[in-house]
């Protein structure tokens, strides 16, 4: 420290009051007024201060310059202005209803450090008795009072300046939705009368004296002009454009550039000629036009109309289009936990505005090759190729009309057609055709729906090797799973996601998916007088069709601490029930447990079903799934240094077969003993988080192995990091992109 200086280590808040108050909450409010912040402490030390001081005043070497840049200057006691901070604390308390508080301070110093102790003397806060509206303009007064039930100011609640500010913003938004284009929240004034006894305050809402006439005028839209080919390029001003009138809207047309059908554009434009201006409609228009995914930028410009009558606006919507076609190529090198490694390539061609209705057509062609470099299947390899065609419409495509919603999000209809060829050399060939027809729409920023009324997949397996057939014959459950590969049904999913709400201390996420298949075929068979039974399954197009129902639920909670660390928790439950024409769920519809986004202490898809040990048989790349899945995860996420994040986690779960499943593998799911069959693991994670990209390394080890004998399933007492054999059998390194949940 410089001569005569001491390191400032922070402040302490003491509250003195004769009333019974929520001091914990008040302290939290007051702490936001403390200035300055002391240097951050890590394990009792201040490494960034050490880096700063080590570099010296005038660093010469690159290392010293780096240390200086990464370090932080020590916060000295002389940097603290406790008298000023005391006044800021008093002002903060005043803004929260403690009108007669005052703060004292004293400095508690040690040999080299010092802290400041602030003592605030407070009385009980003032409560709002009533709010009186005294708006001089009758039209404004009518709108505001009609919306009084939505007011943020409630009687008998504590006075809070932020609530008053938010109420002004709310009223301003309401007025702008009713045509008051030039209104401003600063034109509203709250007057407070604290003369009442019992610490109560009366509020009066008024207009300021200096409100301009334009702010008190209701504005209508006189003219709407749309330009789909707007550019900031100076040369663009030389392009001559024609004009076209469509549904009372002027379109600027550049014949050299293909444009979206005006009818489709107007589906997303909620600013209409002769209608009252609404900021809500302005926001809906912007969001929906950008959601078309055909424009780089969208700008809505308002100008006073040149008409002699007051209260009219001209609207010009300027849109900068994206390139009509784009091509993308990706090359990856993929390595899996089952020791298969190889390259993967994806080629994608995208065409925008395919049928002049903002439709997006995507053609993907992907291929991969992978081989096992070591392990039990060494020199085994496979390859695949997968063409896929997607066509997305920015509207509902239905046999009946659906009224246009006022949501800021555009509903979308998607048609998908794909083919996948998979060659497992010396095992089998699999060909899969899939067709899907789905709707996706957002109710609001946190609620999203997806309905897939038609989802059909048809798979055939050929060129079965003797080894593969022997494997299927030895495990009837796998054999049955692979036989039933014609799936025709539909699904619905709902997502509630609060992670998009920045700054929320507790964020929740919920996802539910339900799926059914085969019922239409079984109904047709029943009408035709045929009996449907899994013992003698019926066929469609020469293949046994699957019949099942499936439901999965996933809930997450994220608790965000003030230091930007967080606690993330997840629970997953799923069940699938084959019936009618099926006795086993199709392999692609079964539940699996284990892997980078599941139980990280176990290899991918290797846990279960129940107490079954998949290592006891050599299934190669095939894994055993289940009809029921339960899984829970907890993870504490913390910062290490800049982009480097850490995590401590615990995972638990398993999959089971239903008791009605005829296959005798593992123990079936039973409520009475499922907890004794959970696999449990724990570990440490290192993440490189640069916002748009997260590279994750999770090192985990099992704590409980459900396939061991009862009373011997907990294996924490066997942990031996010094043993290479234990490390080989128990440590699992997961490398993945993105957070696990």
Describe this structure in words.
By secondary structure, this protein is an alpha+beta fold. It folds into five domains: 7-38 and 75-121, membrane protein fhac (Ubiquitin-like (UB roll), Roll); 127-216, Roll (Ubiquitin-like (UB roll)), CATH 3.10.20.310; 220-321, Roll (Ubiquitin-like (UB roll)), CATH 3.10.20; 323-392; 393-418 and 428-737, Porin (Beta Barrel). Helix content is 16%, strand content 39%. The chain is built from twelve helices and 29 strands. The strands form five sheets. It has a 16-stranded antiparallel β-sheet with strand order 12-13-14-15-16-17-18-19-20-23-24-25-26-27-28-29. Strands 8-9-7-11-10 form a five-stranded mixed β-sheet, with helices on one face. Helix 2 (47-55) packs antiparallel against helix 3 and helix 9 (466-474) crosses helix 10 (476-483). The longest helix has 16 residues, at 161-176. The chain is globular, with a radius of gyration of 33 Å. The two termini are 46 Å apart. 24% of the residues are buried. This is Surface antigen. Residues 546-712 form the Bacterial surface antigen (D15) domain. It is found in: Membrane.
């Amino acid at each position: 420290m410089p001569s005569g200086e001491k390191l400032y280590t922070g402040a302490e808040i003491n509250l003195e009051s004769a009333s019974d108050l929520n001091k914990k909450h008040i302290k939290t409010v007051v702490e936001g007024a403390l200035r300055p912040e002391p240097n951050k402490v890590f394990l009792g030390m201040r490494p960034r201060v050490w880096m700063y001081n080590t570099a010296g005043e005038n660093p010469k070497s690159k290392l010293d310059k780096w240390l200086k840049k990464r370090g932080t200057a020590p916060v000295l006691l002389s940097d603290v202005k406790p008298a000023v901070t005391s006044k800021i604390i008093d002002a903060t308390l005043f803004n929260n209803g403690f009108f007669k508080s005052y703060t004292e301070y004293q400095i508690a110093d040690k040999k080299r450090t010092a802290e400041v102790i602030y003592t605030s003397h407070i009385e009980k806060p003032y409560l709002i008795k009533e709010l009186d509206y005294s708006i001089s303009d009758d039209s404004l007064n009518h709108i505001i009072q009609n919306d009084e039930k939505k007011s943020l100011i409630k009687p008998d609640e504590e006075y809070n300046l932020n609530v008053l500010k938010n109420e002004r913003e709310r009223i301003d938004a309401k007025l702008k939705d009713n045509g008051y284009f030039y209104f401003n929240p600063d034109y509203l004034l709250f007057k407070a009368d604290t003369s009442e006894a019992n610490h109560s305050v009366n509020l009066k809402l008024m207009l300021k004296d200096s409100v301009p006439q334009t702010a008190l005028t209701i504005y209508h839209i006189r003219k709407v002009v749309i330009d789909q080919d707007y550019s900031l390029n100076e040369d663009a001003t030389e392009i001559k454009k024609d004009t076209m009138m469509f549904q009372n809207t002027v379109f600027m047309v550049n014949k050299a550039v293909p444009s979206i059908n005006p009818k489709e554009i107007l589906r997303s434009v909620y600013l209409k000629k002769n209608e009252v201006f609404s900021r809500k409609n302005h926001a809906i228009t912007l969001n929906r036009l950008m959601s078309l995914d055909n424009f780089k930028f969208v700008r809505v410009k308002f100008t006073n109309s040149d008409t002699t009558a007051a209260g009219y606006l001209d609207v010009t919507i300027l849109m900068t289009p994206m390139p009509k076609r784009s091509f993308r190529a990706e090359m990856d090198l993929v390595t899996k936990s089952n020791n298969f490694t190889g390259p993967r390539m994806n080629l994608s061609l995208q065409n925008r505005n395919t049928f002049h209705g903002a439709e997006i057509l995507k053609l993907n062609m992907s291929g991969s090759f992978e081989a096992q470099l070591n392990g039990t299947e060494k020199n085994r390899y496979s390859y695949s190729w997968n063409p896929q065609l997607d066509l997305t419409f920015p509207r509902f495509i239905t046999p009946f009309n659906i009224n246009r919603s006022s949501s800021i999000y555009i509903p979308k209809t998607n048609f998908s057609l794909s083919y996948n060829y998979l060659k497992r050399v010396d095992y089998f060939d699999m060909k899969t055709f899939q067709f899907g027809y789905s709707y996706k729409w957002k109710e609001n920023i946190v609620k999203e729906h997806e309905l897939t009324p038609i989802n059909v997949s048809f798979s055939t397996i050929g060129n079965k090797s003797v080894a593969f057939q022997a494997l299927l014959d030895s495990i009837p459950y796998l054999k049955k799973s692979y036989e039933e590969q014609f799936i025709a049904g539909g699904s619905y999913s709902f997502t509630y996601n609060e992670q998009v709400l920045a700054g929320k201390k507790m964020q929740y996420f919920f996802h539910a998916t339900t799926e059914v298949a085969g019922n239409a075929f079984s109904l047709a068979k029943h009408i035709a007088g045929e009996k449907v039974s899994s013992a003698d399954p019926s066929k469609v197009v020469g293949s046994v069709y699957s019949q099942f129902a499936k439901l999965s639920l996933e809930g997450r909670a994220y608790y965000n601490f003030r230091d930007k660390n967080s606690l993330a928790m997840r629970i997953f439950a799923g069940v699938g029930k084959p019936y009618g024409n099926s006795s086993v769920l199709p392999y692609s519809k079964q539940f699996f447990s284990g892997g980078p986004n599941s139980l990280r202490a176990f290899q991918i898809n290797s846990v279960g079903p129940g107490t079954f040990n998949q290592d006891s048989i050599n299934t190669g790349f095939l894994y055993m799934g289940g009809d029921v899945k339960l899984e829970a995860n907890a993870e504490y996420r913390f910062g290490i240094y800049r982009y480097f994040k850490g995590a401590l986690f615990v995972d638990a779960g398993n999959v089971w077969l239903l008791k009605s499943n005829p296959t005798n593998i593992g123990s079936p799911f039973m409520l009475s003993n499922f907890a004794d069959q959970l696999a449990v693991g724990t570990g440490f994670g290192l993440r490189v988080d640069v916002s748009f990209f997260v590279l994750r390394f999770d090192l985990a080890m099992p704590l409980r192995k459900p396939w061991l004998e009862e009373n011997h399933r907990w294996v924490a007492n066997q942990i031996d990091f010094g043993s290479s054999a234990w490390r080989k059998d128990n440590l699992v390194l997961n490398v993945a992109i993105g957070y696990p949940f």
